[in-house]
Amino acid sequence: MPQPPEPAADHRAAGPADLVVEGCTALVHDAAGEVAFAEDAGIVVRAGAIAAVTSAAEAARVPAAERIDARGQIAMPGLVNCHTHAPMVFLRGFAEDVPVEEWFNDWIWPVESNLTDRDVELGALLACAEMIRGGVTTFADHYFAMDRVADAVAATGLRAVLGLAYFSSQGPAGRDASLEFALRRAGGADGRITTCLAPHAPYTVTDADLRATARLAREHGLLVHLHAAENREQTETSLARHGRTPVEVLQRCGLLDTEVLIAHGTGLTDDDVALLGRAPAAGVATAPRGYLKFGWDPTPVRALHAAGVPVGLATDGAASNNTLDVWESMALTALVQKSAERDASWATARQVLHHATTQSARVVGLGDRVGSLAPGRRADLILVDLTGPHTQPVHDLAATLVHSARAGDVRTTVVDGRVLMRDRRLLTVDVAEVAAELAPRLAALTERGHGRRIQRYDT
Amino acid sequence: MPQPPEPAADHRAAGPADLVVEGCTALVHDAAGEVAFAEDAGIVVRAGAIAAVTSAAEAARVPAAERIDARGQIAMPGLVNCHTHAPMVFLRGFAEDVPVEEWFNDWIWPVESNLTDRDVELGALLACAEMIRGGVTTFADHYFAMDRVADAVAATGLRAVLGLAYFSSQGPAGRDASLEFALRRAGGADGRITTCLAPHAPYTVTDADLRATARLAREHGLLVHLHAAENREQTETSLARHGRTPVEVLQRCGLLDTEVLIAHGTGLTDDDVALLGRAPAAGVATAPRGYLKFGWDPTPVRALHAAGVPVGLATDGAASNNTLDVWESMALTALVQKSAERDASWATARQVLHHATTQSARVVGLGDRVGSLAPGRRADLILVDLTGPHTQPVHDLAATLVHSARAGDVRTTVVDGRVLMRDRRLLTVDVAEVAAELAPRLAALTERGHGRRIQRYDT
């Protein structure tokens, strides 16, 4: 076991800390950036940032406004949900056991033409509750009425990377609105909100709009978050229609020269992976549950890893994925990657923890702010209880975390130094109240008799 | 929604019931045996059996020694873990990220030569705690020192189908001991223990021993529980060495004429499936997590379904599977089957609930006793809380149960009418005490320097 890193020089001299976590085992990253565990550790938080990861004894001597006794628990960086449509929890279990074309054209896109701002806000609040309970501290969201999602983020205390989705079928207004939102809400919620541009996908946004998006991203220093090569069929259709893969389309449009977050990528070719490997700031979000459900290939994580492309964990929206459980995405990434490669020695527990921490932080453009427990990082951390019968005994802490622990084992969730859940009790959102307001709205929300849809899926 | 079935005629006349569960939605099976839900239901329990599944109002009028207010909860048959090695939780996370040959030969089988009876009993107690917390009410176990497992079953209140495993390398003593155990402990723990014969597998037990096992099974009316066609390589090796698949070996040895529980079957051929379809009482247990982890094919559930062979859900042992979470096996069965068949419309939530209930009960030989909430069945039931943010809202109860709910949402577990967990509190086993006694034993248990192993894996 490595020693905990040296405390930052000033952490004892600065008066009472805001929060001290004592007596945990801390998931840290060693000098090479690999996952390691520091036993009997303490974490000192000041002004929303980690001031020190030190020994439990040292931490015990630091006066603090709030203390958490975390003996027997693991402290780790909060999970990052690198691609979701948080409000869509209102459609959890609504469109089941159907292929993707039917899912979009007959269920989801007709229903989304009914959306009201209040539906989106209630969905976002419920989603935030679910994510806080599952140890997610940051989520990258790509949806409509994003001001309401931003409000939910502000209210619940989470961190988020928000982008207002658009299709070219909206005309120039869609792209303009995405930029206007990104500029207006950047830095909101005391800096917990960062923003991005959010074209839907190469099959719903024209090359001209993608080119304009790339220009705007460079001009304003914004991340671009979009779906691309979601499945093999999309890649094949793109090749047949345009002679280029979706990722080649992104490259031609200049998007690979920007900071770009590609959701899914299960249809990536070897050449696409090579292109992404040469891009300065491309990352991929993988949401394996939905790929199994739709019968898609997995994201080629091994090839991306070899090409140096960070791969972050995600859940997609709950309308397809049924949960926003990034803990499950972590386990499924290990399982599906071993299965796909027919190699039990690949996708080790430590590697998957690396995806869940520093790689996920990089993918959403927050690689220098979150994703590890280290001095100077924002204090986004979770405490995980491993005393349950399903996580005992512990032979290998990484394996216990990835393969035995569950989202429900997260006892405490902290974002920017603020405790959002303590001992499983949510402190910033009332689930019963949100669910009660949402329930009577569902009939109008799920009405499909009107014949409208927001878009047509035709890869 | 179907109406709840009529209450049994005598349930009001028999004096106070032992237990009444009120106000739940009950997962029942309709006249065709399909999964259905009865809203606002009540369940009356007498003498360890279900006396009635009726309306909440009717149940409220039945006097009872114990009542559970289950409003907002789902009552469903307790889950059945159709194939596990429960004590192996002591090796959870011990042998990770290695292929199956190495897993057996370099890790598990050397270590199992160190086993003491007390290790097995502590492992079994911890496993029972995990299963009770995850809503499992019956498990089919296949291991060593099974008297200690039977003791743990008696102590914790679970139901189990127990078989003492043997290899032909033990000589006649192994088979004799398996039979002696089966006859001696049958009907134990107030009838909650049933027993079986447990040859390890066709690659570790000779044809002569398998033939003798089939004879003994017929003579004593015993189920036979064994591993077969665990993976494709085993089938190929068997064909190369013997000119027959593992299932053809079972058939020639007479085992397909007995009640037989085949674990895994991921290497089944189409002809094997046809053979099983013609067998009078063959069932297959599928434990999908481990197959992903080892890079094996999935069990061919669709073909088995078409051939009329029941498929039950299982976890295998935690040394390979990391958990005894049958809830996860249920979700993974849906996901992996959709993925393997590349058909999102296959393995619907309702079908998978059917596997989890009546099919699993049949596979372990308890098809007439457990697996559904119906008058006359043993009162093995669980109450599941769907008020958490990750299970709200509910559009489709089957989908919510399979794809959104988690083992940790089980609030109450009842076996034979006795409450083993109430509101997440275990009533029959002290996890901290068991874990504390187990921890200092692990160094001796996992010592591999002695060069012994209980068997060699060579398919």
Question: What percent of residues of chain A are in strands?
Answer: 15-25%
From the spread of the alpha carbons, the general shape of chain A counts as: globular
Using the CA coordinates, give the radius of gyration of chain A: 21 Å
Please provide the count of β strands of chain A. Answer: 17
InterPro entries (chains A, B): Amidohydro-rel (IPR006680), Metal-dep_hydrolase_composite (IPR011059), Metal_Hydrolase (IPR032466), MTA/SAH_deaminase (IPR050287)
Organism (chains A, B): Streptomyces synnematoformans
Pfam families (chains A, B): Amidohydro_1 (PF01979)
Protein name (chains A, B): Amidohydrolase
Name its key features.
homodimer, 459 residues, alpha/beta, 9-stranded mixed sheet, 8-stranded parallel sheet, 17 helices, 17 strands, 37% helix, 24% strand, globular, disordered N terminus, MTA/SAH_deaminase (chains A, B), hydrolase (chains A, B), Amidohydro-rel (chains A, B), Amidohydrolase (chains A, B), Metal_Hydrolase (chains A, B)
